Amino acid sequence: MVDTAARARTRRVRLVAWLVGALVVLALLAAVAFHVQLAQGQLELDRLARQTAAAREQYQQSRLDYAQQSSPAAIGYRATALGMVRDGDVPTYLTVPDAPASSPAPDQTSTTLQDGWKKVKPHLGTQP
């Protein structure tokens, strides 16, 4: 019977050893899987960081282009290229064929304003 008890104890020790070994292997596999997930996440973060840097660079370039194109010198250059002249330069009058000649419009105050002035003027007294 002593022999059977020793065998049973040896079996239990082997079983415990196998279970501990299996747990160690499972723990190592879980650690490897976790490490793989971390590495994939880091690769995604790196890709997003590159995209963000490229977008930031494009935004800065767009701001620079806008600032250069909206500068007074650039606007003046484009206006000159379109045929516009600076204030004080001699204007060029264009004649349109078959168009009636234009005449300056008389400077008339609107009737509503005139009527309002007639109502208010008596109350002003001698003041203008």
Tell me what you see in this structure:
- There is one protein chain.
- With 128 residues, this protein is mainly alpha-helical.
- Helices cover 72% and strands 0% of the residues.
- It is elongated, with a radius of gyration of 46 Å.
- The chain starts with a helix and ends with a helix.
- The mean pLDDT is 85.
Outline:
It is built from three helices and no strands. The protein has 128 residues and is mostly helical. The longest helix is centred in the N-terminal third of the chain and has 68 residues, at 2-69.
Give the arrangement of secondary structure elements.
Layout: H1 2-69, H2 72-81, H3 111-124
Q: What's the overall average pLDDT, rounded?
A: 85
Structural class: mainly alpha
Radius of gyration equals 46 Å
- End-to-end Cα distance: 136 Å
Low-confidence blocks of residues: none
> What is the number of beta strands?
0
Describe the sheet with the most strands. none
Shape: elongated
What is the overall number of helices? 3
Order of helices and strands: HHH
Q: What is the percent of helical residues? A: over 70%
